[in-house]
Amino acid sequence: MKRIKKNAGTKPSSISNRNPEYTAAIQAVKNYYALDDKSRILTRPPFDYSIITSIDVIAELENTQFHKCAYCEDLIIGEARNVVSHYRPLSNAVIDTDGVNEIFDHYAWFAYEWQNLMLICPECNQYKLNKFPLSGAVVKPFSTWRYAENREKPLLLNPFTDVVEKHIKYDAAGHAEGITDRGSITIDILNLNRSNLKHERHAAIQDALNKIEDARTFKFSLQEEMLSDILAEEKLYVGAISSLLRWVCEFLNKPNPRYRRYRGLSLIDFILVMLRDRPSNEWQSAVNRASHLDLEFALNNNILAGFDSTRFAYLSGISIKGFKAISSCSIEFGIKTVDRSSQFAPCTMLLGENGAGKSSILQAIALATMHADVRRRAGVVMSDLLPIYTPNSRGWAEEFSIRIELSDGQFSKLSYSNGRLQLIGRPIENLLGYGARRYFVTGSKKEIDISRNRSLFKESASIQDPTPWLLTASNQKFEAVARALHSLLTLGVEEFIVRDLDEIYVHYPNGRIPVRYLSDGYKSIFALAVDIMRGLLDEHQSLEFAQGTVLIDEIENHLHPSWKKKLLASLRSAMPKVQFIASTHDPLCLRGMRDGEVKALYRSVDGDISIVQDLPPISTLSLEQILTSEYFGLASTEDDDQLSAANILSKYVSRSDDSMTDEEKAERDNALLDYSGTSTIGNSVDRQVMAEALGRHVKKYEKQNFFDKTVTRRDSVRLIMEVLERSMRRD
Questions:
Q1: Is the pLDDT of residue 309 over 50?
Q2: How far apart are CA 712 and CA 710, in angstroms?
Q3: 30-67: pLDDT as tens digits
Q4: Which of 440, 112, 62 shows the shortest CA–CA distance to 234?
Q5: How far is 250 from 244, CA to CA, in rounded Å?
Q6: What contacts 588, CB < 8 A, 6 or more positions away?
Q7: 3-class DSSP state of 689
Q8: pLDDT tens string 3-18
Q9: Which are the contacts of 479, defined by CB distance < 8 A and separation ≥ 6?
Q10: So what's the pLDDT on residue 301?
C-alpha cells in the first residue's frame, strides 16, 4: 500500500452535472433522505452503478492507480468496471473498531463523489465491507467531503490523501506492520497479511533486492536507471518494496554522523549513497535484519498480534472421490473468474439433468464444511452417503473423501474410512442449506431446534414459517430484513415491509396487504428469503454486508417462470455478499448469473460426472438461446408442427432417394417445407442432405448427454451450412 496521486480538482464528466443521468441519480438520493426516519430505515438508498462505471470514470481510475488495487497493490484482473468501489461505504457504516455502532444511511450521499471512488480488488473489498471506524464525530447527510474528513477523522487510511509510509511498514518477508494505530487498523480491516498476498509481496521484494545487489558493479547512471525502474509507480507492490528499502537504508545509516544530512534525500538517491558508501556485507546484514520486523520496534509500538483465523472465506472449489454415486468430480466455484466483481460475492449454478449429481454435490459441500454438532442435528445417515459404484460383498464401498478449497488458501477435508469420519481443516461459519423439498410449517412459534441443513438430507424436513420470528424480532433485525426484502421484491419508493402485533404486511401508498394473502409462489420466496436472512443475522447486524454461503437444491421449485428468471439476481441484490451455490434443471434460472458461474454437469459413458467446457458467455445469450442451447438440455421451444416435421425427417436419415418410394419422398419433402427456414432450399439433392442433417440431429440428440449433444449439434450445423451456402451460390 502506498500513497496514490489523484487529481481531485478535475472529475470525469459522467459524475458531473453535465450528465443528466448523474443529475437524476443525485435527485433520487435527495428523495431518499427526504423520507421520514421510519420509512427511510425500511429501504435502501438508491444507487446507479452504471454511472460510476462509465468509460471516463474507469479510464481515469485505471490511469491513476496503474490498474492496481488501491490498497494491496495487486493487479486488477479482468474488467476494471467490476471492481469500482468506495472509500466510505454507501450504507450501514460501522463506525467503531468493535463493529457494534452501525449507521444504516451513511454515506449514500457520497455514492458519486470523485474523492470516494477507487478500484479495490475483490479480496480487499471482501474484508473491508462496511467497516469505517472513526476517531471523531459523525457528520450529517450532505456534509461536504472536506468537512467530513476533518470532522470524522477516519481510522481507515485513504491511499489518495494519507502518507501511507508514515503508518505502515513492511519487512523483507512481505509482512505489513502498523507504525500507528491507523496503520494497524487498516491492515486488520483489509487483511493485508493474507498468505497469498504476503507471498507475492515477498517475491517482489526479493526480486528488487537481487537486482540491487547485482547493480553494485554498474555505472552510476545505470544504477540510477535500474532503481527508477524498480521503484516505478506502476510496479506491483512498489509500496512494500519502497518501505523495505528505506528501512534497510536507515539501518545502514543510523551509526553515521551524517545521518541527518541524508534524511532529505529521495529514496533512489538514498540507496545510491548506501551502495557507494557501504560494502556488500553491511548491506546484506541490514537486509537480514529486515527479514523479520524488528522486535524492539514492534514491542514499543504495542502492535504484535496473532493470526485471525475467524475471517470469513468463500468456497473456491470442491473435489469429491467416492461419495454416493460420484466416483470423481472437481468443480471451481467462480472465485477465479476474471469477471469476479467487488460488488457481489461469487455464485455458482449447477445445471444438469436428473442423475447428474447436483444434489449429491450440494450434500458433499454441506458435510465437508459443517461442525460435527451441526452434522448430527442435520440427521445425516452415513449408509445413505457411501459410494455405490464399486460394490463389495456387502454392497458398499467403505470410504470417500470431500475436499473444499477456500478463497483464503485454507481448506476443509472430510474423509470416511474404516467406519470413521474425520474432518481436517476449517469448518465454515454461516453455511445454510436447503433441499429440493422446502416445506414451511405455519402457525408454530417454537424456536427452530434443528439444523437448517436438514432438508438437504431429509425430504420430509420442514422449515419454520418466518412470520412468528419477524413479529418478535428486535427492531434492528426487522429493519434489516425489511430493507433486504424491499430490494428482493423490487418494491417501489413508497412501498415497504411493515408489521404490527399480529401481521406482516406489504405496505403500499393506498393500503397494505398481509403477506399471508399473497400467492403461494410469492410466499414461498418470502419464506425462503427470510429464513436465510434470519440465519445470517445471527452473526451480522445488517444484510447489505452479511457474508455467508447458501446452498439451494432445485432452486426453481414452486416458482412461476417470471420468478425463475429473476430469483437469483434478486437474492444477490438483497444479500450481495452472500455466496449462493444452487442447482437447477431449468435454464430460466440462469438469468442473473455471470460468465463463468454456470457449471453444466453430465454423466459420461463410464459413469463419471463431467463438466461441459467452453460454455458460451451466459450474459450475452437471449432467453431463447438459453432455452434451446444444447448445453442446457431443452431440445426446442418450437411448436408441435415444427417438432412433428423434425421427427418425420429423422425417419429418413439413412435412406437414399433410390431406396424410397414416391410417397416417402413426398413425406420427406413436405416435412422440409413445414420446417422453418428450409422451404427455400434448392434441388432434390439439397433436400436430401438437409433432411439427413436435420434427421440425424433429432435422432441422435434426444438421448445424449451434454458433451455428445454439443458434438452432434456442431456436425449438424456444419452439414446444414454447407447446403445453405451451395444453394446461395446457385442463386
A1: no
A2: 6
A3: 999 999 999 999 999 999 999 999 999 999 999 999 99
A4: 62
A5: 10
A6: 556, 561, 564, 565, 623, 626, 627
A7: helix
A8: 999 887 789 999 999 9
A9: 41, 42, 104
A10: 44
pLDDT band of 697, cuts 50, 70, 90 = low
- Residue 432 CA to residue 423 CA, distance in Å, equals 19
Choose among 137, 166, 165, 133: nearest CA to 151.
137
The bridge status of strand 348-351 relative to strand 598-603 is: parallel
Mean pLDDT of the residues in the chain: 82
Of the candidates 2, 299, 300, the residue with the CA atom closest to the CA atom of residue 160: 2
Q: Contact at 8 Å (CB) between 74 and 529?
A: no
**SS3 per residue for 149-160:** HHHHCECCCCCC
What is the rounded CA–CA span in Å between residue 619 and residue 598? 11
Backbone torsions φ then ψ of 652, nearest 5 degrees: -110, 25
Rounded distance, CA 98 to CA 432, Å?
26
CB 544 within 8 A of CB 106: no
Q: Can you tell me the distance from the alpha carbon of 183 to that of 193, in angstroms, rounded to the nearest whole number?
A: 13
Average pLDDT over residues 454-476: 86
Predicted model pTM: 0.81
> Domain limits of the chain?
13-162, 197-300, 315-465+579-619, 640-730
The domain at 315-465+579-619 falls in which architecture?
Answer: 3-Layer(aba) Sandwich (3.40)
- In 450-605, DSSP assigns E strands to 462-464, 496-499, 504-508, 511-514, 548-552, 578-584, 598-603
* SS3 state of residue 631: coil
Please identify which residue in the block is written with the cell numbers 436419415: 653
Burial (CB count within 10 angstroms: exposed 0-12, middle 13-18, buried 19+), residue 645: buried
Residue 92 in contact with residue 479, Cβ under 8 Å?
A: no
Stretch 229-234: mean pLDDT: 94
**CA-based nearest residue to 598, from 344, 334, 225:** 334
Residue 653 near residue 696 (C-beta atoms within 8 A): yes
Q: What average pLDDT does range 437-443 have in this prediction?
A: 68
Query: Which amino acid makes up residue 114?
Result: W
- At residue 706, does pLDDT exceed 60? no
Residue type, 523: K
- Length of the chain, in residues: 731
CA dihedral 186, 190, 193, 197 (to 10 degrees): -130
